[in-house]
Design goal:
heterodimer; A: 156 residues; alpha+beta; Immunoglobulin-like; six-stranded mixed sheet; three-stranded antiparallel sheet; B: 103 residues
């Protein structure tokens, strides 16, 4: 996956190589299951978080992703979110709470054995869009839903 | 006391795994109301699910996952009686794992 790519890009930049070298195919990023991308969780905006986690922030909205979240969450500390999809070849799913201090809540690396389905509970600082980003065949697809939060759940 | 509860159920070819972990999941943003000092971040960073020793799913988590996290996912190719193992590691370097049989 792109975790290695990120590492490579950093190294490449360090030795002065161009980022486009990544595309040469010599160093095709291998799936790095288990590597933790701290940068994705440190990022303060959605695009930074996506780039760190998925390699790009370019994503297209898709009807094939189903994002289940409440319309109104009374308690922002516990917002149940379920993401499912009918797409094939899904590598990873990220759940993003747009207005959080660090928007990235979680990323799930799915192996080919997995069904495109994850369900968890996230914290939301305030009313915002919850965005599910799915990586399939190397491209990013997304679905968003606004969740109204009565009491924020991120402290501060 | 194990910190992980696992329920896994096979239905046809698809196994649904539901798991609950007990963890404070501190974001590092909250302040202690008595001392006014920030409570240091303490949250799970990685959750790994293994089916009979093969990794089926890895989750990377930040502090924005709710306290005592719940996680559910589905996968194919398991039969009733197979083992499912869940492991978590947090940013303090602590971790735990638990194993359960698929029903």
């Amino acid at each position: 996956m792109n975790l290695l790519r990120r590492k490579f890009v950093k190294t490449a930049a360090f030795v002065g190589a161009t980022v486009s070298a990544v595309g040469t195919g010599i160093l095709i990023p291998q799936r790095a299951l288990g590597a933790y991308t701290k940068a994705a969780f440190d990022a303060k905006d959605v695009s930074g978080a996506l780039t760190a986690a998925m390699g790009t922030d370019q994503h297209t909205a898709s009807d094939e992703i189903k994002l289940k979240a409440p319309d109104i969450a009374e308690n922002g500390a516990v917002v149940p979110v379920t993401v499912s999809s009918t797409m094939g070849n899904i590598d990873a799913i990220s759940i993003i709470a747009s207005a959080n201090d660090s928007p990235m809540t979680s990323t799930y690396m799915l192996t080919s054995a997995c069904e495109p389905f994850v369900s968890t509970r996230i914290k939301m600082a305030k009313t915002s869009d919850v965005v599910a980003v799915v990586k399939a065949d190397g491209k990013l697809y997304s679905a968003a839903k606004e969740v109204k939060v009565t009491i924020g759940g991120c402290g501060g | 006391m194990a910190s992980i509860k696992i329920r896994a159920k096979a239905k046809g070819d698809i196994t649904t795994v539901k798991t609950l972990m007990s963890h404070p999941m501190e974001t590092g943003l909250r302040k202690d109301s008595k001392t006014g000092k920030k409570i240091p971040a303490n949250h799970i960073t990685e959750v790994t699910a293994e089916h009979n020793g093969n990794t089926v799913m890895t989750a990377n988590w930040g502090g924005a996952i709710s306290k005592n996290p719940y996680l559910s996912f589905k996968f194919k190719g398991a039969a009733s009686g197979d083992k499912i193992k869940i492991t978590w590691v947090d940013n303090m370097g602590k971790g735990d794992s638990a194993e359960a049989a698929i029903k």
